[in-house]
């Protein structure tokens, strides 16, 4: 058995803000992917993944019992395949903010959900919200809480515009310019990030009125503007707004930025060669970068591993 491929994702804008109803923009990142497989000769990793799937199946059983109107799974088939050694064969790095658990959730839903919403049908807002709710409950097994956006992105394999918690839609993004010199890139922090503790820090910060007001007046304002800029292809204005978001992250999200990147983060803001952002919840994994001139940014960041994601 080998299931279809599900891809990683990158949340370009909206990290943490989407919890507080800022806009967000998430795009599939086809460089990494995963698929459900059964093999006669499992590796050590496959055995580990199989054990994790076993625990996940227990979560799905409970979720189904608590939310019978939301979703039901063919548990018999799922448990049989797990018994036969099924695992998730994935190149998506875990704890890196690119949706490793999202791709797994999408693969399980695709293979085992009864009466599933398919990618081929007319995806009304109701259907998208239904999928997002199902995926959020499924993925909460891995993170404690989940918006359901990562699996949604992986399942649809389309860019997703988040207007608010209750308003998401597939969207088109400007096509990449092969001859373009600007770019969006990832930096490998070479550390694994844990989502749950980072989200917990953010939720604690929200108890502080000053932090709440900063989220509303600054973070949401610049995030919403950056999303609009990106979708319209207005990259000149985009860099101004991304610079502001980079400053906000360094001032208000410092615990989520690995310490060894504090200096290089500031350097980007001062030199205007690049602007860094959190990729997902932070704490490690990838860091997201935006550069007006990617070659210049590469030179400034030559001590780090960079991956170009999008050219403009």
Automatic annotation (TrEMBL):
GO molecular function: ATP binding; kinase activity
Sorted UniProt keywords: ATP-binding, Kinase, Nucleotide-binding, Transferase
Keyword Repressor among UniProt keywords: no
Entry-linked InterPro entries: GHMP_kinase_C_sf, GHMP_kinase_N_dom, HddA/FKP, Ribosomal_Su5_D2-typ_SF, Ribsml_uS5_D2-typ_fold_subgr
Pfam families on file: GHMP_kinases_N
Domain GHMP kinase N-terminal as annotated: residue spans: 86-150
Protein name in UniProt: Mevalonate kinase
